[in-house]
Write a structure and sequence with these properties.
Blueprint (H helix, E strand, L loop, with lengths): L2 E5 L4 E9 L8 E8 L2 H20 L8 H11 L5 H17 L12 H13 L4 H22 L23 H10 L2 H13 L3 H10 L7 E5 L5 E5 L2 H7 L10 H14 L7 H14 L4 H8 L4 H7 L1 H7 L12
Antiparallel strand pairs: 1-2, 2-3, 4-5
Length: 330
């Protein structure tokens, strides 16, 4: 049974617990001790440990009830995601678990206050709402998985995402694009042309090259966010790059960004990365009159509203004088 006692030398209350799971073939032991400054906290924890001991002896509770074990199992579940996403989730959950109070070690003890306290600390550290939401997304995924697997309430459901400022996007026009090509070497030029004529994200491009592209391909199939597949046709400029060896050399996201950033510096234009070429692809199609629903599909956006939000200024400029055609009736 659990026990509670006052330790004079420490000036604190100590709770000890120990129970053996008789249903398990290995007779696993559930044991430990924890100290508290306040007697009320110790009494509450003591009552909880007594209940946990009874469940443990009956075999109804396993090590999966610990937050650390649940996080380890969730990491296995997350292998369905990309390596980058797995790394992000593992980093967030490790930091979140380290922030938990000393007496919160079981999934039944997690609550919304634990999550909000973690987010407050991130905010106090000066992190943006966008970063806070990235951390909260990982925690929400973990809590949703725990709730479904252990039939517990989803404690993260009531924690709201923070309002984000829209990211500052880098848009380039034809003049800057031409300057970029003029300053690029053969290898960088082929990559810039391919990105600007397909609208691929940097991660999509890197995975595509690593998987291999045939020189005779007229379209490529990529896996974007949320593992959604889409097919992007290759125009003449993009197909021409496939006939040269540079485009087939594998490269990572960071080296790709650094390469394009160096080219922009040589071209004496404001800094930009691969995503600016994705914006160039979309804006040029919209300005050429391509319907936004088709542009949205080529970009792999989950909704046309996403496309409208990113390129509203382009759409507004495009319709500014559209009614002038009615002047012909006068």
């Amino acid at each position: 049974m659990a026990s509670i006692s006052y330790v004079k030398s420490l000036g604190r209350w100590r709770v000890r617990w120990k129970a053996t799971n008789r249903q398990a073939t290995t007779n696993r032991v559930f044991s430990g001790s924890r100290v508290f400054f306040e007697k009320a906290q110790a009494v509450g924890f003591f009552a909880e440990m007594e209940a946990q001991e009874r469940l443990w002896r009956s075999g109804a509770v396993s090590t999966l009830d610990s937050v650390d074990q649940a996080a380890a199992d969730y990491a296995i579940y997350c292998r369905r995601h990309t390596t980058r996403t797995q790394g992000h989730y593992q980093m967030v959950l490790a930091r979140f678990r380290a922030s938990l109070p000393g007496n919160v070690r079981r999934i039944q003890q997690l609550d919304a206050a634990c999550i909000e306290e973690y987010l407050y600390r991130l905010r106090d550290a000066g992190l943006s709402n966008r970063t806070l939401n990235a951390h909260l997304t990982a925690i929400k995924g973990f809590c949703r998985w725990v709730a479904r697997r252990h039939r517990l309430p989803n404690v993260a459901a009531e924690v709201a995402m923070a309002a984000e400022e829209p990211p500052v996007a880098r848009f380039i026009g034809r003049d800057e694009y031409a300057a970029l090509l003029a300053a690029a070497g053969d290898q960088a030029r082929d990559r810039i042309v391919f990105l600007a004529h397909t609208g691929l994200r940097a991660s999509e491009f890197c995975r595509l090259v690593a998987a291999g592209i045939r020189p005779d391909q007229t379209a490529v199939t990529v896996v974007g966010k949320g593992r959604k597949r889409r097919t992007v046709p290759l125009n003449r400029a993009a197909r021409e790059t496939l006939g040269r060896p540079h485009i087939h050399r594998t490269i990572g996201r960071n080296p790709l960004y650094q390469q394009i950033s160096r080219v922009a510096k040589r071209a004496h234009i404001p800094p930009l990365g691969p995503h600016a070429l994705r914006h160039y692809f979309a804006t040029q199609l919209l300005l050429a009159g391509v319907p936004i629903i088709k542009v949205s599909r080529l970009l792999g956006h989950s909704s046309v509203k996403t496309t409208e939000r990113h390129y509203a200024h382009i759409l507004d400029a495009d319709v500014a004088r559209v009614t002038d055609v009615l002047d012909l009736d006068l």
